[in-house]
């Protein structure tokens, strides 16, 4: 996968294990550095991917009304602590000029953006901007809700707390009724 240096990750994981007082050579940990390197290659695979590429598959369809794909599960890694955060993304857009993308392409865009060291706010805005730049729709609205393990397993230790972020572009900025329609459909 891309520019992943597996040996360097394995070495770093061994150093971490030693630094916390563990023996990286004991049976249960012997292959941990290799497993972590493979896992990091997978969970950070979005670093080598342009999320806009997925949106370039378009179809001509005279549809200029709301398209919403909701409850798209995603998993990401907090760039501040390198622990997971996960949740659901809801992606809405109003096509322009008969230019619609495949529904699965919206989910793939979410995944490409989430699979890198991230902040939830950046995931939300990057998805919205990618759709605007590629499809030039009348409007885009992205809502992301996630639970952050950095708040659950350490720090304030508040499991179940959800963070909700939104990015609004185009007509959704000024059209309160259109924005309200998306939010009510997400809640259903």
Automatic annotation (TrEMBL):
The keyword Nuclease does not apply. InterPro entries: GTP-CH-I_C/QueF, GTP-CH-I_N, GTP_CycHdrlase_I, GTP_CycHdrlase_I_CS, GTP_CycHdrlase_I_dom. It catalyses: GTP + H2O = 7,8-dihydroneopterin 3'-triphosphate + formate + H(+). Gene3D superfamilies: 1.10.286.10, 3.30.1130.10. GO terms for molecular function: GTP binding; GTP cyclohydrolase I activity; zinc ion binding. Pathway: Cofactor biosynthesis; 7,8-dihydroneopterin triphosphate biosynthesis; 7,8-dihydroneopterin triphosphate from GTP: step 1/1. Its EC number is 3.5.4.16. Pfam families: GTP_cyclohydroI. Keywords: GTP-binding, Hydrolase, Metal-binding, Nucleotide-binding, One-carbon metabolism, Zinc. It is an enzyme of class 3 (hydrolase). Transmembrane segments: none annotated. GO terms for biological process: one-carbon metabolic process; tetrahydrobiopterin biosynthetic process; tetrahydrofolate biosynthetic process. GO terms for cellular component: cytoplasm. Signal peptide: none annotated. Zn(2+) binds at residues 78, 81, 150. PROSITE patterns: GTP_CYCLOHYDROL_1_1, GTP_CYCLOHYDROL_1_2. The keyword Secreted does not apply. Residues 9-186 form the GTP cyclohydrolase I domain. CDD domains: GTP_cyclohydro1. Belongs to the GTP cyclohydrolase I family. Homopolymer. This is GTP cyclohydrolase 1. The gene is folE.
